[in-house]
Amino acid sequence: MELNDLKIFKTVADLGSVSQAAIELNYVQSNVTARIKRLEKELQTELFYRHKRGMVLNTEGKRLIVYVEEVLGKLEEIQRVFQDTAAPSGVLNIGIVETVMRLPGILSSYLEKHPNVDLSLTVGVTEQLLQDVTSMKLDGAFVTGPVKHPLIDCHEVLREELILVSKSDTFSMQDITVKPLLLFNKGCGYRERLESWLKEEGIIPRQIMQFGSFETIIGSITAGIGITVVPKSSVRRLVDEGMIHGFSMPQSYNEITTVFIRRKDSLLTNTLRSFIEELQLV
């Protein structure tokens, strides 16, 4: 089994297409197909469901991708170990939840001190970002805490208040049974807090509309479509201007913590160490 075969397998799995993987890797398509077949022959099992629109991992393929991501992650770590220098430099892959309003200031301060760092940002929900950090796709991520995971180190960054937001200037719990809830996709920490509160109150929402973008959610709120839950800091200007209205949640559910996570057994490069040190100044 060769590392190149594993890289090809992962690229096909990520893109869902042999032809797209060939373009991405700058290989001829027949070579990619042959490498996948060779890997399947060596493991004595098929790894994909093949259909007209491309390829999707089957059960065995999903088992293999977990090991492949770990192997390739360790390979990248080896390269970073021997390329690491005293001065922070190179690529730093960081994940973020979209509503951390203080993040631009943190990043600006860090990049001003370390101009040789190429910062790459991935936006997502907490659950997906946690998976990306544990699989070493990301060096670290800002997510909703607390996070309890045996492979993860956490650094608290800030605490904020969660509020309900609506176009209407009044709110009652019954509004949730007649108006849609506009929420981030499953895996969002804010959504989990709201759903836990509603479950405790025995309230079933009329409808949940899922969105992947903060701007889309807030735009829909200002249009009067429904109700959402967000950190107060993320909508302070709109509330102050009267475009939307904020409403308190119970104290047991309204405090949200943003933490920075990293995989504890991965290499702590000078670049990542300096980033974490910057967070401690917040």
UniProtKB/TrEMBL annotation:
Keyword set includes NADP: no
Keyword tags: DNA-binding, Transcription, Transcription regulation
GO molecular function: DNA-binding transcription factor activity; transcription cis-regulatory region binding
HTH lysR-type domain sequence ranges: 1-58
InterPro entries, alphabetized: LysR_HTH_N (IPR000847), LysR_subst-bd (IPR005119), WH-like_DNA-bd_sf (IPR036388), WH_DNA-bd_sf (IPR036390)
PROSITE patterns in the cross-refs: HTH_LYSR
Family matches, as Gene3D superfamilies: 3.40.190.290, Winged helix-like DNA-binding domain superfamily/Winged helix DNA-binding domain (1.10.10.10)
Record bears the keyword Transcription regulation: yes
Chain segments annotated as transmembrane: none
PANTHER family (UniProt xref): HTH-TYPE TRANSCRIPTIONAL REGULATOR, HTH-TYPE TRANSCRIPTIONAL REGULATOR GLTR
Similarity comment text for this entry: Belongs to the LysR transcriptional regulatory family.
Protein name from the UniProt record: LysR family transcriptional regulator
Organism: Paenibacillus sp. BIHB 4019
Lineage of the species this protein comes from: Bacteria, Bacillati, Bacillota, Bacilli, Bacillales
